[in-house]
Amino acid sequence: MNSTALDIPSNLIQALRDVHHVAVLTGSGISAESGVPTFREAQTGLWSRFKPEDLATPEAFKRNPKLVWEWYAWRGELVSGAQPNAGHVALVEWQRRVPQFTLITQNVDGLHQRAGSGNVIELHGNIGRTKCFEENRIVEKWPETGEAPPRCPRCGGHLRPDVVWFGETLPVEALERAVAAARSCDLFLSIGTSTVVHPAASLPFEALEQGATVVEINPDSTPLTPHAHHVLRGPAGRVLPELVRHR
Ligand code: OAD
After folding, report:
1. pLDDT tens sequence across 135-154
2. Where are the beta strands (DSSP E) in the chain?
3. Contact 27, 192 (CB under 8 A)
4. Which end of the chain is more exposed for a tag (fewer CB within 10 A), N or C?
5. Which residues have C-beta atoms less than 6 Å from ligand 1?
6. pTM of structure
7. C-alpha distances in angstroms, 48 versus 71, 86, 161, 197?
8. Which of 21, 124, 227, 230 is catalytic?
């Protein structure tokens, strides 16, 4: 990818000017330029011997709660040291400029909110929250005993991050709002996601079915690429600020 201005087709520029409701789905690629490794790149270094399925399932947690807790603690530290990038900031600006804007994210890093985005629909939870594995309720404080994972102060069960693991259902209200937005928007952007993990991956296809213009922003191709109306190849931190200029 060179650093010259992005070639944005004129019909997309027109769609950006006319749009009433923009729905955006983001994946871990939007946080890559903040230094947070994407989900499928995160198995590096110390963690390279583990597949996501070995770390992000209820079964993995039951088998080895310490391993899973420590992996999320490592990711949580990375996230708290990271800053939102130009891609996150461009989405905040866009939200201000269009009548209706729905931001749906698969990310658990909270960087959209830290950039200033409001009403973010979090499909996969948030790494900054903790819940009880047994009771499935949010726990804000617990006694620090040095045990990993710590224990629920009410029932003594293990605590876990409030994120959605493989094999778990997504938060119902968040998913309903996301599907409703995909079905009613006139422009849908799929940004920095490999579009392989369902049900989030079906959202751009819902939008396509309802006649929305669908744009993919990703340096690589995904299962959505052949179906998208426009594919903008490049990092979100470069492409998004250019797109927003046209609104
Ligand atoms: P992935 O790691 O599967 O995909 C990241 C995508 O971002 C890839 O398609 C990259 O090409 C793209 N990418 C990398 N750098 C980028 C950049 N600077 N700008 C734009 N795109 C870039 O991450 P997700 O699609 O988010 O779920 O993964 C979806 C879900 O799978 C995650 O939420 C997680 C995981 O299982 C759960 O934990 C339930």
Report:
1. 999 999 999 899 999 999 99
2. 21-26, 100-105, 121-122, 125-132, 159-163, 187-191, 213-217, 230-232
3. yes
4. N
5. 27-30, 32-33, 38-40, 52, 56, 106, 124, 163-164, 192-194, 197, 217-220, 222, 235-236
6. 0.94
7. 11, 29, 21, 21
8. 124
